[in-house]
Amino acid sequence: MTTPTPLPGTTPPERTPVVIVGAGPAGLTVGNILRAASVDCVVLETESREFIERRPRAGFLEEWAVRALQRRGLADRLVERAPVHTEFEFRFAGERQRFPYTEITGHHHYVYPQPLLVTDLVGEYADVRGGDIRFGVREVELHDVDGERPSVSYLDPATGERHVLVCEFVAGCDGARGVTRTALPAEHATVARHDHGVGWLALLAEAPPSSDCVVLGVHPRGFAGHMARSPEVTRYYLEVPAGDDPANWPDDRVWSELHTRLAAPGARPLAEGPLVEKRVLDMHDYVTEPMAYGRLYLAGDAAHLVAPIAAKGMNLALHDSLLLADALIAWLGKGDDSGLRGYSDACLRRVWDYQEFSQWLAELLHGPSSGDPFRAGAATARLRRVLGSPAAASTFAELFIGKGTDH
Question: What's the pTM?
Fold first, then answer.
């Protein structure tokens, strides 16, 4: 990859140590940590600030991730406002069984929708720490990432001018559909993929939660999930065929299926309300190895995607970003390249741990609706073992709550 010949309308190159592509949790965390260490950087984002602060995404944060952000001064509002979850409930075969993972592990989850975290992080970066962030950029391109002086160019739609940022490192944090993950040559990186063969209809209801905890409904008609988002809003999921059209799910059909799949004696009736979001998420995963090429380092969904089955995606993105930010600071401040050399391997150990757990949990949730009597029987046995064996429960709880970290 070579730097293109300057074209008419290209502004003089700017210089900055780090260019961060993408203003999601990963990119903004890297940017904030760099700013706190007096390392200059520029964040490029194709969407508007209003859009990223409202984009619906995940909401479960593992305790280690929150503590790590808190130590960096990035979680004050989160800790003050986010509800704490300590258990969840399985519903299956007409039974309700609570799983008290905090009682088992001593750790808990925070429920804090990603748009709120992004709002906090972008406010801290741009408004408090004075970070340079450029929204609404177009045609982002990477150049010479395999050399010592990479650059990133983009089009400013307001002026029609192309800007070039010459840097030392590029942090690729622009997600599954971003440009940075495509910059890794095929001969350099491998991409491992897995398709679960099902979809989840993601629903956002303007209705109060119908349980004080997450509910996982394991049903022959398909998985159903209930997750509180706020006192007025509830996230629901319904297992549907992969590639299904949300238009096939009018409100009446949605609520009928939710009532059926989450039914259990003694359970509170579901509180219905307007469904303000319906989208089908195909359940698939991928992992890119290695997560670096030259001076380009990927973080979050740009490097790996884990289906939302075990609520691991945002936590993995934060883990990557903490490692990457510290590694960049060590190199730029002290010439210590050990963190950058070990970055990909350190990230991928956790990535594969979380992928394996997600796949295990997927079979537990989807086996009974697979149409395969063997898979259904094995999944039921797996669930009853988790609920009946202290040893199995302990292992499951530790994986569900996530691994600790020194960051």
Answer: 0.93
